[in-house]
Amino acid sequence: MDENVDIANIPSNYARMIGRELALNIRELPQLLQFTQLNIEQLMRDETLLTARQLVQILQNSVALSEHADFGLRLGKRLTPTTHGAMGFLVNSSPNLLMALKAFKEFIPTRISFARLSLEYSESSVNMSLHFDIPLSAQVHRILSETCAVILYECAEFIVGRPLDEAKICFAHPEPDYGQTYANYLSGRYFFSAPEIKVEFPLSLCNILNASAHQDSYLLAMRQCESMLQQLQPGKHSYVYHIQKMMLSSSLGELNEEHIAASLFMSKRTLARKLAVDGTSFREIRDSILSQQASSYLLESNLSVDAIATLLNYHDSSNFRRAFKRWFQTSPSEYRYKNKKPSS
User: Which residues does residue 37 pair with via DSSP β-bridges, in sequence order?
Assistant: First the structure.
């Protein structure tokens, strides 16, 4: 594993959902966290972020704790779109399945940093392949493959409005002893021991309109996700990059400098020195992200200023208004009035 597996940038709600699927009580959680250097208090905090190494270890621990051989399939069923933040919201509000697949491909790095999707197109189908960029044990690879497959199928069937009988999925792992239970989670055909994990969707499925699509919600979520990726500056693995990714994977208002420093295994003073080398500070990074998101909400939605303040985790809207005036030298209402384009 390379050094990036020890950067905390994966939302901890995934680990909590694993614990819920295992039906663990509070006294049993240390078994799930064994060898992760995490404690129960850290796990239960929404602002806690996991490293790739920690999530992989939690999945490895779950193998020993689960009473069900099909744990990966069960976990995928539990991870509903709401557990995937803005990306899940974007996928479910997509105009059709093809646009949803593109959203998955583009924005999965904002949720699981070591997973990567690719798309290939033919005259009759769209093929999506799943890759993991870090070494995984055979058990963890199988669990993650099953979980991701069920998540994808659940979202796709929501958009299409029916089972994906025409779809085909190939898994890289051999058929497990419980292979017959796959039919309880995945429609269509499935195969094992393939060269890679790949799903084939006929174009006829991809172009079915999503009855639950909402254009305004889709465009707002898309711009937010694009803003997240742009700010993450892929390929530049500086401390600024990692802090941006942590902030964009969690609730901005709940992350403070101490939490960020601890996630990077350094003191607050050391973090400040390293950021100063890059000509910035924790507050500047945080303000940059908050101000851009505030601007997007004001110009691209009809949400009230109080609602936007709540979304950005300001418990008192007056604090948000003061911060906004510091960023833009005007009030949120005046900013919206001067800059928002009229609806066509």
Answer: none
Q: Read off the amino acid at residue 85.
A: G
Q: How far apart are CA 275 and CA 318, in angstroms?
A: 29
**Measured CA angle at 97 (ends 91, 100), to 5 deg:** 25
**How many CB atoms are located within 10 Å of the residue 123 CB?**
5
Contact 29, 19 (CB under 8 A): yes
In a domain? residue 99: yes
| Phi (first) and psi of residue 175, to 5 degrees | -65, 125
Amino acid found at 203: L
Nearest-angstrom CA–CA distance, 297 and 203: 34
159 occurs within a structural domain: yes
Q: Are the C-beta atoms of residues 223 and 298 closer than 8 Å to each other?
A: no
247-281 confidence digits (pLDDT tens): 766 655 556 888 888 777 788 899 898 888 877 88
pTM: 0.69
> Could you read off the pLDDT of 52-105 as tens digits, one per residue?
999 999 999 999 999 999 999 999 999 988 888 888 888 998 889 988 998 898
The answer on 207 and 116 residing in a single domain is yes
Regarding whether 207 and 242 lie in a shared domain, the answer is no
Evaluate whether residue 344 is within a structural domain: no
Q: Are 141 and 173 in contact (CB under 8 A)?
A: yes
249 secondary structure, DSSP code: T
Is 227 within the bounds of a domain?
A: no
Q: How far, in whole angstroms, is CA 5 from its chain's centroid?
A: 16
Q: What are the counts of helices (DSSP H) followed by strands (DSSP E) for the chain?
A: 17, 7
Q: Are residues 24 and 127 in the same domain?
A: no
DSSP 24-84: --TTTHHHHTTTTT--HHHHH-TT-EE-HHHHHHHHHHHHHH-S-TTHHHHHHHH--GGGG
CA distances from 200 to 191, 207, 250 (A): 12, 14, 32
Domain span at residue 30?
1-67
- Element containing residue 131 per DSSP (H, E): strand 125-132
163 or 293, greater pLDDT:
163
The 10 Å CB-count burial string (b at 16+, else e) for 229-243 is: eebbeeeeeebbbbb
